[in-house]
Structures
1.
Amino acid sequence: GQNIDQPTEMTATEGAIVQINCTYQTSGFNGLFWYQQHAGEAPTFLSYNVLDGLEEKGRFSSFLSRSKGYSYLLLKELQMKDSASYLCAVRPTGANNLFFGTGTRLTVIP
Amino acid sequence: GAVVSQHPSWVICKSGTSVKIECRSLDFQATTMFWYRQFPKQSLMLMATSNEGSKATYEQGVEKDKFLINHASLTLSTLTVTSAHPEDSSFYICSATEGQETQYFGPGTRLLVL
């Protein structure tokens, strides 16, 4: 089976840094994705990790440790518009589909 | 690039009617399309995987006779909710990939069954 865990909610201050963790136990692994989803909208792609290490893309970075079944999304210089749900998704081996965690609802406060 | 559209964005229907939702990849050929359902404050649940020219693969617990999926071309997949009931009211989202690449999501279709 697939088990992907994320915190349900987080709150952070504008301008600060926040780290959203994701742990997974899946039958096979072929990549981990992070998506941002604003309320009532479809998810938008943020990052993709398939090898261990840190991937940086502007204010967003994502880290992966395959041996620990662990990833995090790091958001720097938080802006109010970053308030959204952040979804961690794992792609199993030999397939194109994704299994999503429940998502972390981030609220950025002034 | 990598734009996926869905139509309609909103649909309200009476219980017992059928509703068709279209998903199109606008600037790439989608070898695989996925259909998800999302209930309020919950994450996306994969319903089925659709490959062009072949039958869709449904996830456990999803009734294939109720949720008909057709992937007739490399740019179009349709989901038909047959004999819709109020419990089918949800946010339906499709995504598309070209090969083993990233999934790109459509804007979603909000279905309300009265």
Note: Chain B has a mean pLDDT of 91.
2.
Amino acid sequence: GAGVSQTPSNKVTEKGKYVELRCDPISGHTALYWYRQSLGQGPEFLIYFQGTGAADDSGLPNDRFFAVRPEGSVSTLKIQRTERGDSAVYLCASSPRDSPIYGYTFGSGTRLTVV
Amino acid sequence: GDSVTQMEGPVTLSEEAFLTINCTYTATGYPSLFWYVQYPGEGLQLLLKATKADDKGSNKGFEATYRKETTSFHLEKGSVQVSDSAVYFCALRQNSGGSNYKLTFGKGTLLTVNP
């Protein structure tokens, strides 16, 4: 597609529920990233995919968070047993490769609210 | 680890005023530096970048110069417009090493320009 698409744009869920957030990167972009932006903060790195594999998941806050990219295109960020502290905007970005000379293209984000 | 510190907002200016948003960083080596902008309801967009010391990035009337001696990358614009109202993020990315795909962001500065 023309840009990075994230769905849903907004998600409200109850504490303890499971949620999935979807990212559709730019066609042909092999590198995909997830970031989390809490209120009043800059985005913080969560996980990086090169192709189908998670090359670096060191930013995932705990084992309730998991992400997949089974066919090297669309990625899903999964959060189990959501907590109020998970409320944030979850950003996805993609780039042609992981070299710094290639810029990221960010999606508009999914605003997750846990009530 | 790497970090970025930018001036806290909000910053409120009148149209045609001069803008400076300060940004300093702490990092090993010589990273690339970026300014991203987030307009209301939209995703992060790259505004400008500089990849080495003394480089000047510029775009849409905005400028920032990579100052290694002061580890700074201050954003400036000579005459702001109402349409510049947005949140501005300073960020860095290592040019080499195992984590050169990762962006480290500041907390963001909200700019409001009044007519």
Note: The CA atoms of residues 94 and 100 of chain B lie 5 Å apart.
